[in-house]
C-alpha cells in the first residue's frame, strides 16, 4: 500500500524558515517524480514544485522561486521542501504527491504551515 | 501561471448528471492532452479521478468521464450519488515542467 506521510509543519514568523518532510513507502520511490502541492485555508490547490526521480532537476511555481528548495533522499525514501523567507501568503496545507502522466495519483494527508507573527 | 477557470458551484439531483467546465488558454489546456481532475472532500487530501483528459485510474467509477475541446475541458459525473458531493479541481501541464490548477467547483447533490 502506497503511503505518504508529511511532517514538519508548524507556526513560523514572517521571514523565517521551515523544512517539511514526506516519508514514502509501498512503492519504488526512486522511480517516481515527486511534487509538493499546497492549499491555503479555504482556497484551491496550487502546484508548488517537482523533482525528477534521481533528484537532478527541480521545477517551481514562480511565486516560490529563489525561496523554496525541493529535494529528495532516495536511500531514505524521503522528500523535502526547504522554505525560506516565508510570507503570510505561504500559509497553507502542504501535500506531497507522486507525479506520473502529468497528474498526481497518491497524496499524503498534508502538513499545515502557518506564517504569522 | 494563471489559474484555470471553473464555475464556483454546480448541483444536480441524485441520479442526474452534472458537468463541470475548466477553461484555460492555448498555453496550457489547448496545447497538451494532460488535463486531470481531482475530487476533494472536506478535510481530506485530493483524489485523482481523471488523467490525460479521459483516462480513469483503477477504482474510479465509470460514472466519471472527461473530455476536452480547444482550451476547455469538462468533467461529467453521471448517475450522481450522495458521496459525489465534494470540491472538484482540474489541472493541466503548462509547459517547462510547470502545472496549473483550476479555481475549484463545489458540487452539491440536491
How large is the share of residues in beta strands of chain A? over 45%
| Main pleated-sheet profile of chain A | 7 strands, mixed
pLDDT averaged residue by residue of chain B: 96
The largest interface is: A-B, 20 and 28 residues
Given as residue ranges, the uncertain stretches of chain B (5+ residues, pLDDT < 50) are: none
Radius of gyration of chain B: 13 Å
Count of alpha/pi helices of chain B: 0
Q: Main sheet of chain B, how many strands, which sense, barrel?
A: 6 strands, mixed
The count of strands of chain A amounts to 11
Task: Give a written overview of the molecule.
- The complex is a heterodimer of chains A (117) and B (110).
- Chain A is mostly beta strands and 117 residues long.
- Chain A has strands spanning 3-7, 10-12, 18-25, 33-39, 45-51, 58-60, 68-73, 78-83, 92-100, 103-107, 111-115.
- In chain A, strands 2, 4, 5, 6, 9, 10 and 11 form a seven-stranded mixed β-sheet that branches. Chain A has a four-stranded antiparallel β-sheet with strand order 1-3-8-7, with no helix packed on it.
- Chain B has no helices and nine strands.
- Chain B has strands at 9-12, 18-23, 36-40, 47-50, 64-69, 72-77, 86-93, 99-101, 105-109.
- In chain B, strands 1, 3, 4, 7, 8 and 9 form a six-stranded mixed β-sheet that branches. Chain B has a three-stranded antiparallel β-sheet with strand order 2-6-5, with no helix packed on it.
- Chain B is globular and about 40 Å long.
- In chain B, 36% of the residues are buried.
- The mean pLDDT of chain B is 96.
- Chains A and B meet through strand 5 and strand 10 of A and strand 3, strand 7 and strand 8 of B.
